[in-house]
Each structure stands twice: as C-alpha cells, then as structure tokens.
Design brief:
With about 500 residues, this protein is α/β, with parallel strands linked by helices. The chain folds into 2 domains: about 35-80 and about 285-460, Hexokinase, domain 1 (3-Layer(aba) Sandwich); about 90-240 and about 465-480, Nucleotidyltransferase, domain 5. The protein is about 40% helix and about 15% strand. The protein has a 6-stranded mixed β-sheet, with helices on both faces. Strands 4-3-2-5-8 form a 5-stranded mixed β-sheet, with helices on both faces. A two-stranded antiparallel sheet has the order 6-7. β9 and β10 (about 250-260) form a beta hairpin. α6 (about 225-240) packs across α15. The longest helix has about 35 residues, at about 390-420. It is globular, with a radius of gyration of 24 Å. Belongs to the hexokinase family.
Length: about 500
C-alpha cells in the first residue's frame, strides 16, 4: 500500500509486525541510536517495544481516520474532533493599525499587554504579569473576573491609557464553545482552576460585567480565543502564507483556515465570509475509540494513571505532559523483565511523572551527538543509578528516541491530514510550545514526515512565539476592522 493511499475501511484492524526492521521502515530510518549487540536481550527489548513503531500501513490508517473525523466534525456529526467555529473570518494582512489590549489567561500567572500596530507591524509592546491566588482559582467565579478587571485597570492606568476606549482580545485557554467572535462559554475548567458559577457561562460577558462594576475604565472586549488561534494569528503577521496554527508543548492542539461554505455550525449571523478559523481541538482525537489500534500496554497504563481517564487520547501520545511518563512506564517494565539495570528498579522511577519530558529531550540530544553524557548524568544524579553498562545506556536512549519519534510522526500525520483537507498548494504552519522549541529533533522529524505524507503540498514550519499574547491583540485588530466594514455596508 502506498503512503498516500487511504484505507477504504478505517475500522478494519491492521496487524503489526512482531518485530521491527528499521531498515525497511522509512519513518524509523531516522533512528540514530546504535543497535545493541545482537543478543537475545536486545531482541526481547525490540519485540516488547514493537507496538511503539508505527508501520507505513498504520500511519496511513491514522491519517485516513483523522480525515474522516474532520469531515464528521465539520458536518456536526459525532466525532472526536470538536471542529469549533471561532468566527474569526480572516488573518492579519498588513493593514492593521492602532492600539490594542490583550488579556492572556491560562494558568496561575497571566498577562495584560498593550500592542501598537502600524501598517501591520508591531511597533510597541508593553506587558505586565499578574498572579492568581489559590483562593481566586477555587473560589466564586465573580471574584476571579473582578480581579481580572482590577488588573486591567491597574495596567491601563500605569501606561496612561485609562482615558481611551481600547479594544481588547481575551485569550482564555480553557475548553469553550464559541457562539460568535466575542462570545465563548466555558465547557469545563482544567488545570488548577475550579471557580464556581462559570461553567456554561459566557466568559466575555462575565469580564464585561466586572469592568462595568468598576466603572473607571473604558475597555471594550471584542474577541475571545484560545492560544492555538492566537498562534495562527501571530504566524500570519510574520508570514501571510500562514494557514495553520499548532501548539506543541505540555498539551497540543491545532487550528486552520477553512472554507466558510464547508462549516455547518454557525450561531451568529453570516456576513458573506469566505473563510473561517476552525479550532480542531485535536487533543481529544480518538476519545471515541477510533485510535485504539495504536494503543500499547504502556499507553493504557499512562491513561489509567492520568487525572481524567479515556480523554485527551491524542494528547497522551504527543504532549509534553505525557512523553516522559510513557518513557518511565516502559523503563520500569524493562527492568521488571530484567532487561535493564540487572532488574533493580530505582525507587524514584516508581513515582508517577518522575521522568520528565525535559529528560527525554536531553537524552535525545545524546542520540544526536552519539554520546551518553546527559543520559549518564540524569540516571546517576536524578535516579541514583550508580553503575550502568553500555547496553543499559543504549536501551534508555533507544526508548527515549522511539517514544519521541512516534510523537513527532503522529503530530506530522495530523498536520498532513489538515493540509490535505485544506487542499492549498502552499501553506506555512505556525508553531509554538516547549516541546517543539526544546526537543532537539522534533522540527527536523516533522518537516521530513509531513513531506513524506503529503508530497504534493508545499509547506514550511515556522516558530511563532507568544500567540496567546500578541495573537489576542491581533484578533482584536481583526474584530475592529470587521466592525468598521459593517458600518459602511
């Protein structure tokens, strides 16, 4: 079966090879860790981890299923992809002018920003950071939004802009259902937030009410978005060919520019939009079971130990929150089978999430350098492994490498599916996130894999940092351009 051929029946099971021959798999030819001596032990290691290797047939099936879920979601049929309409109908084109505020809320620390745009260029940026206490994160929602309004007031007064009516873009990095460009209802709190009285409510209106209660500032909240949409907006400012936004950090998500006539879900009035930004919410891809054919015993264990089981399925294969934990459970299993460290399990390795994804990146740097310095240091200093053989070091490097490569391959497969669905001849993919920025080979692997998967589409990967901040201000600028146009009609 060719790489581009889609399976006609994506529900049909695909059998795996009992062992992996990397020489015959174009994806895993990127592995640089030298194979161990041809011993029975190494064959056992390879066989035990064979499920982590995705054959060309399996990758093609993942892509086919992803495309199927896109079509279902965009047509409002049951799908694991939310395909949320953001109601953002265009991207920055170089005509954006003026002063814009941005509020970036997604964790215990948040920011207020002031952006000045001139002919689509950022000529001024002011930023101030604030902290949300435990009491606010867990207390009544009205208190949280009053605090946000207080911080906005502090910011505009500090920068002497309190007398101006400034448009604000609100990055709210929690699951929400949008009903218009300036209406987003919280679906559920995540991370460390659990404020009462917010779930199901429009967070834009709650922020507006808090601003009105103060009565001393003139801020106009004109748009709400998540960090993925913000990354797309920031990317478009840097490169007007940008049509896809990707977050690849602790979590992962993607969005893209869709033809408006394909989008069925539309709760606000249409104004002849030709395109619209769709938030894929791909972290949940596979929550309905369509991706179970790639799930290994190690993935099941990670899921069983997660905060919310049987959710964020795709994210648990690719997100920085989970890659280190996948490596940890594999290493523990190899030790229990006496294939690593002579069967002695370091006590710390038994602790959940003790093997950080940053360790995976450092060890993979050893794979690039063909050395062992990071691997030896981490095992000795962080896990009290006193003596390691060359075989032990090679096995640890091998595990980190194949888990990383599978993640990069799955991210690339999702992006390839989006490029194929969009069917544009040339696209820039704007990317932000710690995993993409700090893993030594994610960018190289993704560039290589996407080209293999969709060779007919030209594309480039571009780092677009701070979409959650700058992207919110840019979205506010788009909202104001739309308002101005509607007034002239």
């Amino acid at each position: 079966m060719s790489l581009e051929e889609d399976h006609k029946d994506p529900t049909k099971m695909v059998s795996r090879e009992s062992s992996v021959d990397v020489a015959t798999n174009k994806y895993y030819s990127r592995i640089s860790t030298p194979l161990l001596r041809n011993t029975t032990k190494m064959k056992k290691v390879e066989n035990m981890l064979s499920g982590i290797h995705l054959s060309e047939e399996v990758v093609s099936r993942v892509k086919s299923v992803f495309l199927s879920e896109i079509e279902l979601g965009i047509n409002e049929e049951p799908s694991s992809l939310q395909m949320e309409n953001t109601y953002v109908p265009e991207l920055p084109d170089g005509t954006e002018e003026g002063l814009f505020l941005a509020l970036d809320v997604g964790g215990t620390n948040f920011r207020v920003l002031l952006l000045e745009l001139m002919e689509g260029r950022l000529v001024r940026e002011e930023v101030k950071h604030y902290h949300i206490t435990d009491e606010l994160r867990l207390g009544p929602g009205i208190d949280l939004f009053d605090f946000l309004a207080t911080c906005i007031a502090d910011f505009v007064k500090e920068f002497n802009i309190a007398d101006q009516t400034l448009p604000l873009g609100f990055t709210f990095s929690f699951p929400m259902h949008q009903r218009s460009m300036d209406c987003g209802c919280l679906v559920t709190w995540t991370k460390s937030f659990k404020c009462a009285g917010v779930q199901g409510e429009d967070v834009v209106e709650m922020l507006r009410e808090a601003i009105r209660r103060r009565g001393d500032i003139k801020v106009d909240v004109v748009a709400v978005l998540n960090d993925t949409t913000g990354t797309l907006m920031q990317g478009a400012l840097l490169d007007h060919k940008t049509t896809v936004g990707l977050i690849l950090g602790t979590g992962s998500n993607a969005c893209y520019l869709e033809r408006a006539d394909r989008v069925h879900h539309w709760e606000s009035e249409r104004h002849g939009e030709k395109e619209i930004v769709i938030d894929v919410e791909w972290g949940a891809f596979g929550d309905n079971g369509v991706l179970d054919f790639i799930k290994t015993e190690f993935d099941r264990q990670v899921d069983d130990n997660s905060l919310i089981k049987k959710s964020f399925t795709f994210e648990k294969y690719i997100g920085g929150k989970y890659l280190g934990e996948i490596v940890r459970v594999i290493l523990v299993r190899l030790i229990e089978e006496e294939l690593l460290f002579d069967g002695d399990v370091p006590p710390k390795l038994l602790q959940l999430n003790s093997f950080r994804t940053s360790y995976v990146s450092l060890i993979d740097q050893d794979c690039v350098d063909e050395g062992t310095v990071h691997t030896e240091t981490l095992l000795s200093e962080d896990f009290d492994v006193e003596l390691t053989t060359s075989d032990d070091l090679a096995i640890v490097k091998y595990v980190c490498e194949i888990v990383s490569l599978r993640a990069a391959l799955l991210v690339s497969t999702g992006l390839a599916a989006i490029l194929q669905h969009m069917d544009r001849p040339d696209s820039t993919i704007a990317v932000d996130g710690s995993l993409y920025k700090y893993h030594p080979r994610f960018q190289e692997w993704m560039d290589h894999f996407i080209r293999l998967l969709v060779p007919k589409y030209a594309f480039r990967l571009m780092l677009a940092e701070d979409g959650s901040g700058k992207g919110a201000g840019l979205t506010a600028a788009i909202a104001m351009k739309l308002r101005a146009r509607e007034k002239t009609v």
